[in-house]
What we know:
2 copies of one chain form a homodimer.
Chain A: H1 12-22, E1 27-31, E2 37-41, H2 42-58, E3 66-70, H3 75-86, E4 90-93, H4 100-110, E5 112-118, H5 122-126, E6 137-141, E7 155-157, H6 158-164, E8 179-185, E9 193-198, H7 199-210, E10 222-225, H8 237-244, E11 247-250, H9 257-266, E12 271-274, H10 276-289, E13 298-301, H11 308-318, E14 321-327, E15 334-338, H12 349-357, E16 361-362, E17 367-371, E18 386-391, E19 415-423, E20 429-434, E21 439-441, E22 444-446, H13 448-456, E23 461-471, E24 475-484, H14 493-501, E25 515-517, H15 531-539
Parallel strand pairs in A: 1-11, 3-4, 3-5, 4-8, 5-6, 6-7, 10-11, 10-12, 12-13, 13-14, 24-25
Antiparallel strand pairs in A: 1-2, 8-9, 14-15, 15-16, 17-18, 18-19, 19-20, 21-22, 23-24
Helix pairs in contact in A: 1-2, 1-8, 2-3, 2-6, 7-8, 9-10
Amino acid sequence: MQGQMMDFSLDTQAILRRGGQIFGNQEVVTRLTDGSYHRYTLREFERRVHRLINVLRDLGIQPGDRVGTLCWNHYRHLELYFAISSMGAVLHTLNIRLSEEQLSYIINHADDQVIFVDTSLTSVLEAVEDECPNVRNYVVLDDQGETAETSLSNQLDYETLLAAASDQATLPDLDENSAAAMCYTSGTTGNPKGVVYSHRSIYLHTMAVMTTDGYGLSQREVVLPFVPMFHANAWGLPYAALFSGCRLVLPGAQPTAAILAKIMIDQKVTTAAGVPAIWNMLYQHLKQENLSLDTVETLIVGGSAAPRAMIEKFDKEFNITILHLWGMTEMSPLGTVGRIRSHMEDWSYDEQLDIRMKQGVPAAGVEIRIQDDNGNLLPWDGKTIGELTVRGPWVASGYYNNPEASKSFTEDGWFRTGDMVTINEEGYMQIADRSKDLIKSGGEWISSVDMENCIMAYNGVAEAAVVARPDDKWDERPVAFVVSADSANPLTEEQIRTHLLETFAKWQVPGVEDVRFIDVVPKTSVGKFDKKVLRQRLEG
Amino acid sequence: MQGQMMDFSLDTQAILRRGGQIFGNQEVVTRLTDGSYHRYTLREFERRVHRLINVLRDLGIQPGDRVGTLCWNHYRHLELYFAISSMGAVLHTLNIRLSEEQLSYIINHADDQVIFVDTSLTSVLEAVEDECPNVRNYVVLDDQGETAETSLSNQLDYETLLAAASDQATLPDLDENSAAAMCYTSGTTGNPKGVVYSHRSIYLHTMAVMTTDGYGLSQREVVLPFVPMFHANAWGLPYAALFSGCRLVLPGAQPTAAILAKIMIDQKVTTAAGVPAIWNMLYQHLKQENLSLDTVETLIVGGSAAPRAMIEKFDKEFNITILHLWGMTEMSPLGTVGRIRSHMEDWSYDEQLDIRMKQGVPAAGVEIRIQDDNGNLLPWDGKTIGELTVRGPWVASGYYNNPEASKSFTEDGWFRTGDMVTINEEGYMQIADRSKDLIKSGGEWISSVDMENCIMAYNGVAEAAVVARPDDKWDERPVAFVVSADSANPLTEEQIRTHLLETFAKWQVPGVEDVRFIDVVPKTSVGKFDKKVLRQRLEG
Lengths: 540, 540
């Protein structure tokens, strides 16, 4: 027996309509590089999206075609998010920090027909243009960044096109399972792999983001996604902003910690989202300049684990809650959220912090489990480490045109995350390590993440990354790369070792020669510690 | 081009799994009639649901079969909610306040195979048993209510069956569009009409309920649904409780205002949900007994409009927020939520109350519009009255086996609510009246709802209902039925008229002979003012 409910398509058109109609007076604010702000209402936004849909059609874009964007976080990028998907085409966000090889690979692999690019980023494309013969047009968006004369062929100007287009567009009926967007994940080996989001997955992910125990977004929030819109849908915030009616504040081109602080104060931001590295820089800036952020309540952290010391410092010195998320490009990206539960409210601060250090419990809709190498399910005891496998309506079922993809899925249809984790009795997941980042020494595991967190909690440490080096006797030994916060007062190897010995067993702590001071931890294109580079240094 | 996301079924099994696994330590608490509380964890709950699934199978229930429940709000009813739908059968909640004719009609129309009934409600079924020959079994649940010897044939005992069943059940793969539950809506004319909820609609409705601007449910809430589980899924709270992990407190058989107050205090309830009449009774009780409800933050009100005076009294005297919802059985039921927006926070209390008196903006996922008699769309100006039409993934597309249903839908697929409303520029909907309840006098409309609210705001008025009487000269004239709060100090007709003249035009105010004092406003089976009965009194 079937239900008798409307066959209502879950798609980005519905999100766009709600933004324009119910929250038509709400503003989208973008920081411009001259320090001023661009602002318009969601009603005006919706009209420009309709113009843009007509532009895309004039450029020959058909439903299903991939359209690339190489842009910072700004209102025009938001217009592209909604116009491309709502007309039935596929938004392909290009990561500005990819190598030339990777960039041309993904443009060709996705078969992008047209690419929209910021003036300040045209040089990135110029370098690969010859390798990408199928791109018919480059449409340039003036982001007020540093503009070079660009040699890109078949160049068009965004605003000129929009000005000539009608602001009335008829949108097609969409199949909710059709593709709306795609994003490549760089991975550690081989070519980047494309994740293809459906309208349905985006819609459902948006609902999860808006639950009180998700990000808890409401109309009353002012939200700043520092996380780039070219990275995993900016964690879903562009969609959630329109669906919840919150005020979206976009940081524009090349934001720094100082710029972020200014925007937060100017625009009365309540919630911002980014990787730990940026909040670390923000913290340093706030201290140096003696600033406070009175309106900010929550800093959402994902991409890497937030160090305990960071959570504590923001709590105690700024009354700002660091909210721990964990996700993956393959998960749209929201997987888990690290909130404490009602029965923990009586716990000591340190006990609560133990919980908040975990990546958290699955967002409503996501399911998790841990498995051993043979696929057996492991207990949820908070101790047993196994590989995290996940499923849910916004988890990828494969990679775009990639026959290797099957390795990433279990036989019964769960996605293998590659993360080695524990889950406790209440469903709190904690990452022990990426499976490749766990250090196996003398037959026992050492968590590089735990060791990094421990080092970063030490006074005078700015950053730390721990990787394995091969060792004849022990198989592997940990090497700690440490950045001193104050180069005028550098720390010593023995200080780090002594500090580690308070938490770790003696056999786990790196030897003196394996504590190495560096100027900065190298980062990947999405701001994570790039352990590949560190490992190469060890070899080199 | 299709998305490459998991084909994950949105169904009640996923909600059940999450409750048992992630929130396994959370408790469900039920008030028993002896004043004690039954409590168990969601982990235990899930095991009993599995037992119950085995019981249902032993009783011959097949996927798609309808299974009736005639029960109060308690843990066994919650078990039935999840067991029946998760095994693929269809939960049919029977309203305990229906007439015998209506009850036998819906049991036969739905073709219920088995009915689960509370001991205290068996007499309701005995009266119709002979009219319902297709019901194979009656399974009796001991709700500790007044138990009569029951003559029901083919009687079985719930706990005896459960004790004999295994607590391990394999659940079938479900099509998310298959039926999970049904509920009949009595309407004003003709036979009750059946609404058939799909797994998908329930899942999506649950997500909407959990958004911050929906009910805002989180794990930290303690939620008491006074709204019956036999009425429109208790507004979705049974499902949302398991999915959000909040603590569910169920009031058991025949709760009164005094019982509610006790439960709220005993169990530290934070949010409760019910019709205005019950909160009015609760208010009277709190004042009489000089009680406060320190943990209660929100009383969710639906079913009828909350009088302004009630919202104000709870705000000012108890620091409890009345949250206005509007919905319909055909909408699962959530349609709109009446929260103020950030830019209104600077407004005066009275201005905010003007907004909170409206039924609110559509919940994320629901779309609304207003139309005139010819189907033309009307402007959102807060003034123009038209019929509200709605659509969304949890709105009915028809009624079960009812060819008359097409009248309730527009040609382009929206549901006609029968409510006459305004919508303002920001999407706030306000009900002027049910179309049949609007009073047309001398060619102009009078809103019976506005007039009722005005009268109920007058000191000394307990309740008031306004209906139209036919009038030779004016077509219709309003008649106000008024209940004095203190029968020792009754109000006069002129007091009511003088009070109304402060707000209404002279021609709108009922004449002296049209203000009538009564002891109580008659209510429908779901607690709404029964204007049908009042109109009959005018005729009689």
